[in-house]
């Protein structure tokens, strides 16, 4: 077992201590002038859809503490993350599609924290590889870099997975919600009252979006604008077409109940087609247990009696 030379270990520890002291001095509030954007930021709205006097969302004491501790480093790391995973506009769009209420800064902070955790895990693996296996220090540095990159990309993958899961959930809820809207409109209620009834009497991702749409209409937006916003906030393409169809039916005076029933029927046909496509993609995976488990047992049960007879005859 090879041991790290004391000179190399001391040099590494001294380098880490020097970098830590440099970051502490560089990130001190005495050396950071407060910019104009930071001073006027509390008086600005978070986005175009939020109210002017809405309280700023906070990520909790834990994230505030991490922000204060890693503040000098996070700003530079966020610039690198934006080059890897997309700009702030694209990230805000993905967070909106995932139904998250956190800001882009909080998400970037989570990426930095996971990157640091991956770096620590990679550092442990690198030390074990260098001390126990005698690997090259360059390989250890590569393992640390891969751990940090893996933590950052893992958080981005989880966001994409949340978007896909929310889209699948809305696709399951959409036919039922469209039928409820059609029944409410056929009973004599207005489109806004029908959406409000569905939002208050149902639970799920889609009723929450209808509640947000009703809130926009109550705040002064037109029905067409609110329905168009419904399509942009959700990852489901059929829901965007639904909003456009309902808006056109309201503007032209088309019977809305028939339009909603047609939308529900189209949603069911789309779900059936998606189910058939998923079954076709999983057909190969369904053959795996047959080929590797069932077929060998059938061959063994077919050949074993013949071998037993041959041994008895011999």
UniProtKB/TrEMBL annotation:
Keyword Transmembrane: yes
Coarse class of the protein's main subcellular location: membrane
Source domain of life: Bacteria
Record domain Type II secretion system protein GspF: where: 178-302
Transmembrane segment boundaries: 6-26, 112-132, 138-163, 284-310
Membrane topology designation: Multi-pass membrane protein
InterPro entries assigned to the protein according to its UniProt record, in alphabetical order: T2SS_GspF_dom
Location in the cell: Cell membrane
Keyword field: Cell membrane, Membrane, Transmembrane, Transmembrane helix
Protein name: Type II secretion system F family protein
Biological classification of the source: Bacteria, Bacillati, Actinomycetota, Actinomycetes, Micrococcales
């Amino acid at each position: 077992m090879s041991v790290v030379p004391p000179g190399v270990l001391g040099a590494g520890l001294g380098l880490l201590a020097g970098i830590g002291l440099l970051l502490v001095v560089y990130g001190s509030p005495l050396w950071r002038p407060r910019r104009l954007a930071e001073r006027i930021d509390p008086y600005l709205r978070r986005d175009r859809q939020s109210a002017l006097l809405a309280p700023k969302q906070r990520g909790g004491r834990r994230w505030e503490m991490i922000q204060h501790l890693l503040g000098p480093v996070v700003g530079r790391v966020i610039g690198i993350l934006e080059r890897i995973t997309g700009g702030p506009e694209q990230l805000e769009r993905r967070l909106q599609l995932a139904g998250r209420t956190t800001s882009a800064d909080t998400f970037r902070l989570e990426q930095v924290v996971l990157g640091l955790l991956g770096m620590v895990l990679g550092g442990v693996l690198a030390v074990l590889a260098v001390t126990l296996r005698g690997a090259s220090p360059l390989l250890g540095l590569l393992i640390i870099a891969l751990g940090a990159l893996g933590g950052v990309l893992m958080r981005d993958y989880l966001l994409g997975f949340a978007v896909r899961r929310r889209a699948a959930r809305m696709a399951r809820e959409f036919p039922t919600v469209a039928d409820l809207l059609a029944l409410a409109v056929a009973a004599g209620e207005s489109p806004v009252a029908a959406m409000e009834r569905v939002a208050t009497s149902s639970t799920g991702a889609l009723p929450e979006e209808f509640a947000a749409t009703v809130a926009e209409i109550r705040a002064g937006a037109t029905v067409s604008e609110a329905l168009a916003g419904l399509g942009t906030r959700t990852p489901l393409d059929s829901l965007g077409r639904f909003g456009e169809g309902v808006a056109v039916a309201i503007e032209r005076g088309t019977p809305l109940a028939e339009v909603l029933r047609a939308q529900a029927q189209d949603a069911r046909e789309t779900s059936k087609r998606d189910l058939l496509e998923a079954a076709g993609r999983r057909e190969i995976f369904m053959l795996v247990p047959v080929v590797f488990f069932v077929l060998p047992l059938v061959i063994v049960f077919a050949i074993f009696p013949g071998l037993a007879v041959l041994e008895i005859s011999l």
